[in-house]
């Protein structure tokens, strides 16, 4: 099978196309003929060598998600040809992941999906939607009528979160650093767009503040996002687009306003399972839930796909077809 192997830490060029044996599943595993997979920023960090060696060692076939069809399932959990997806649970980290024509995760980490969506759409949905869904409904506990600020609105998760939040009856505000992205954000579901210069708290508070903040930029804007919340509000840090992992000299008593809550969302296999992907896919089919696929590549072009992710030029989720 063809696979994109991360041979060492480095730039996009360390991803090498190689021919590897097709995995042979044993009972309790499921061999998937991968048709598409989405790119995720955690894979960028892994490729750059920022994931601890205790979690990922090179060479490794990256890819924390994959969609495709069941090729073989010795335990009988699925039928050959079932349309399925898998994500997280060590995929692309402790064992080879989705950047290949086949992947072989544990069967209990594989989930059937019923949809007529094309692979270039479905392939971008599992990790993006479970992250947006879990952040909004599990960590932030977003309710109808609440005002949500999506910090990092033009990221794939930010665009998906805006759509899901609007569908749940929330008022959605989204941020971007670029004036020319306003239409993109409004098409995704944002009712107000805020141009982000790094410090927007005073502007947001002048507009009445927000109940919930989905923080996708990361530590570089987290303290400012905390100041955007009304009393009783919550901030969920999910993303790391800012590529910084820590806050120097962070002082909780000074950074976190009284009665504002700070939480996170990482998303595990149980969260993937809890995401109603078939129902969400139906909404995408019907046009009632809009998701934004930015660019579509072939596996042969994985280096260019990673370069696009690193340069933030996709304008939505990047999907790779095998």
Would you kindly provide a written description of the structure presented here, covering whatever features stand out?
With 322 residues, the chain is an alpha/beta fold. Helix content is 27%, strand content 26%. The chain is built from 11 helices and 16 strands. The strands form 3 sheets. Strands 3, 5, 6, 7, 8, 15 and 16 form a 7-stranded mixed β-sheet that branches. A 6-stranded parallel β-sheet has the order 11-10-9-12-13-14, sandwiched between helices. The longest helix has 14 residues, at 126-139.
Question: How do you describe this structure in short?
Answer:
By secondary structure, the protein is α/β, with parallel strands linked by helices. The protein has eleven helices and 16 strands. Strands 3, 5, 6, 7, 8, 15 and 16 form a seven-stranded mixed beta sheet that branches. Strands 11-10-9-12-13-14 form a six-stranded parallel beta sheet, with helices on both faces.
Q: Strand share of the residues?
A: 25-35%
Overall residue-averaged pLDDT value: 95
Class computed from helices, strands and strand pairing: alpha/beta
| Distance separating the two termini | 10 Å
| Strand elements, count | 16
Q: Oligomer, anyone?
A: single chain
Uncertain spans: none
Largest sheet properties: 7 strands, mixed
Morphology: globular
Task: Figure out the total of helices.
Answer: 11
Radius of gyration: 19 Å
SSE succession: EEEHEEEEEHHEHEHEHEHEHEHHEHE
- Helical percent range? 25-40%
